[in-house]
Design a protein that fits this description.
By secondary structure, this protein is an all-alpha fold. The chain is built from 16 helices and no strands.
Amino acid sequence: MRVLLWSLLVVPRTAIAVWAALDPARWQEAFPSIGWLAIGWFLLPFGTLVWVIVSAGGLDLVDYIVLVLAVISDGLTYLAKRFDIRYGRRAEQARKKWDQAESIVADGRPIGPRSPMECVGDAVARCLPWPGMRLKASVRGWPATRRMSLQHARLIEFLAFDSTSKAMLASTPAWLAVLLMLAYVNNSTISRSGMVAVAVIGPILTIGLIMIVGGLNAQFRVVYPLVRALGFVYRSNTWPPTTKEIRQLNRTLGKIADALQRLPLRLGSPHPSVCKAGADKAAAIRDLQEHATWGNPSERESLTRVLQRDLETVLEGRWRDLPDGTAAIRTQGLTAWQKAAFVLLAVVFGSGATWVSLTGESWGPGSSLLISILVALAVASLIRSGVAPGGLQQAIDLSKGIRDG
């Protein structure tokens, strides 16, 4: 990860220096003052590169969008570097010595109470694209009386860092490349066919990267909603909860179950016994929704104990030790008519993208953005239907096929 981060800091600045030396006239036009160029080179290298690309022929809506995203990318790069400096080495040590009580002291244990500003900061962190920041913010939301063991706090510390580094490794270079490519396509004389090809390939690669990151962060996908569910139960001052709180808790439990159902696919093991085990363990989590729904005080204690045990089991990687339930697999997923509707929706979106590519030349370069959106919606519809691989519906269909066999 450190090599990736340093490359994100060094490569764009090197590109600026080389490009400015080869084409000084264009850079002088984009930056009449050497001072502004120096500030851009030092603080916003990706934003500076995009500005030079888009500023030559005037700015339109797509240019502004790309420019803002490039500046945000610079900010996220600095944020990720700070995250690595603060947690990287400690997280790696925590993973190596997680079961040694006399080893390093980790700060991943829940702390509290939180000040209003700290709560706002945690709420912002949960909206950021880096998984580890969302996980650590959720754990910090636990009350002080609900501290986890030092060993499991160390595993949380490592998982927070590891999930973030994997997400960056798989997505950041491609994300920045897509930004630069979109800026270039929107401000160049590239042929119409080339523009359409970029518009079609871009979202497909992006969705593919999302699938890859989901597989790399399979453990995080289960731990994060578990932490959120426990935090909800711990913070609840009254029981039974309100209808809104019950819906929120049941939604979170559903996310845990979905993550376990898709676990065989994310781990690259669609073996029949593994798929069946994933469905059964997901069923056990869905059974917990009964505890949350009826709201009896005794049900709350039972739910808390089960979630605590499941979190410890997942953190230690003992997936097989999770309890099994009886998966009502026949009632899960989409019906045949619903699948057909999603496939039809994908055809409509794909046809729309084709129509724009053939007739949208008069719309200007911005039509490539519309093509990308339509292609992304078409692929997402196919994944939701289970026709394209990687979605929850595919995992449910595999489980149904195993039970039918």
